[in-house]
Amino acid sequence: MKEVTVNASSSYNILIEKEILWSAGKYIKRLIGDKKLCIVTDDTVDALYSKPLEDSLKSQNLSFIKFVIPHGEASKSASNLISLLEFLATNRITRSDALIALGGGVVGDLTGFAAGVYLRGIKFIQIPTTLLAMVDSSVGGKTAIDLQAGKNLAGVFHQPALVLCDPDTLDTLSNEIFADGCAEVIKYGIINDKDFFNLLKLGIKNNIEDVIKQCVTNKAKIVELDEFDNGTRQLLNLGHTIGHAIELCSELRVSHGSAVAIGTVIATKIAVNLNLCSKQDLNEIIDLLHSVGLPTECPYTASALYSVASADKKRSGDSISLILPYGIGNCKIYKVDICNLEALIEKGLNSL
Ligand SMILES: NC(=O)c1ccc[n+]([C@@H]2O[C@H](COP(=O)([O-])OP(=O)(O)OC[C@H]3O[C@@H](n4cnc5c(N)ncnc54)[C@H](O)[C@@H]3O)[C@@H](O)[C@H]2O)c1
Ligand SMILES: [Zn+2]
Questions:
Q1: Nearest to 28 by CA among 40, 13, 17
Q2: Is there an atom of ligand 1 within 6 Å of 105 CB?
Q3: Is the pLDDT of residue 313 over 90?
Q4: N or C: which end of the chain has fewer CB within 10 A?
Q5: Whole-model pTM?
Q6: Which residue, judged by its Cα, is nearest atom 4 of ligand 1?
Q7: Cα separations (Å) of 136 from 118, 132, 214, 271, 310?
Q8: Section 60-87 average pLDDT
């Protein structure tokens, strides 16, 4: 078993082990005692993984109810949040009870938000089942739903009480969804961990437990420094500002991971153009992204990306913070005046 402790406003453990889903009840009972639980999951994950979790809760005599949402981003909605809160209230879930998020980032974000606001905050446990959720969304306490006006526009900071990662659950992911998670994995290496980046060249799947452990260790360090996202935590947005613009320009046909991969390459090309980063590092980044099946080329113009990126919620006043690699393992926050952004994106689209 691999274990990482996050020391944020509350401390919690991330336990990583194959088949841990089958013994989840033991760890949950240790954490909350004989309280009532509400499993939140989506229909796809429900069919695959609710049974072992439920059996393991039953084996510990833990009582539970279950709330199942349709799979997909559209479920991270205000209406599902309210339905879930009503479900908790109708079933008399109390302040000492807890929620369990079993699924990917959609389930985790919705469940975390509900746990953060129900009765002004109750405990929740993350059992992530996608690579993205294991290495990113289940850790760090950001929760959210989407609004009509955009993704993740409403949410609270609410840390989980425990995270249980069972890498065996990744076996049922499609190659595309696994690759999406790889974009976030590679992101951690580029941000501040060159040794990890080099390790990833040996393969992600065959070192999966070590890879998850290193990603969450790196994320935990950043969250511990800046839990509420006022500074250092912005580094985790590497590839995301331009990546979100790509997702929006494609009307979400380009997946999040693919968009982050392309956004990361654009950010790196900008850095190379500004003589901040070497061309060799750019080529290494492109090669690693290609090796896991991610794209690195953008089908959109600088002007199309600019018009979407300049409306980004991370914009503050007349400037926007881009995260640029000054080399693999050395990213920095780079403030750009909005009026210079389009020209910079243009530099990031040029072939070098
Ligand atoms: N809170 C954060 O810090 C944070 C960070 C990054 C991303 N996010 C959010 O995470 C979401 C994306 O997460 P995601 O990529 O996990 O998407 P997701 O939850 O939609 O899961 C992707 C798909 O995989 C299916 N699935 C999940 N586990 C499976 C398994 N083991 N086998 C087969 N199918 C499985 C799901 O049913 C779904 O259809 C976005 O909403 C994003 O905004 C949040
Ligand atoms: Zn992301």
A1: 13
A2: yes
A3: no
A4: N
A5: 0.96
A6: 137
A7: 24, 6, 11, 25, 25
A8: 98
Ligand 1 pocket test, candidate residues 18, 71, 81, 130, most atoms within 8 A of CB:
130
pLDDT of residue 351: 77
Give yes or no for residue 173 CB within 6 A of ligand 1: yes
Q: How confident is residue 314, by pLDDT bands cut at 50, 70 and 90? A: low
User: Do residues 18 and 168 lie in contact, with contact meaning Cβ atoms separated by under 8 Å?
Assistant: yes
Instruction: Dump pLDDT digits (tens) for 180-221.
Output: 999 999 999 999 999 999 999 999 999 999 999 999 999 999
Reading the block at residue 338, the tokens are 């909005």
Strand partners, 4: 14
Cβ-proximal residues to 79 (8 Å cutoff; 6+ apart), any chain: none
Q: Does the Cβ of 101 fall within 6 Å of ligand 1?
A: no
Q: Is 138 in the pocket of ligand 1 (CB under 6 A)?
A: no
- Token pair, residue 165, equals 């990662």
> Tokens 């509350």 label which residue?
10
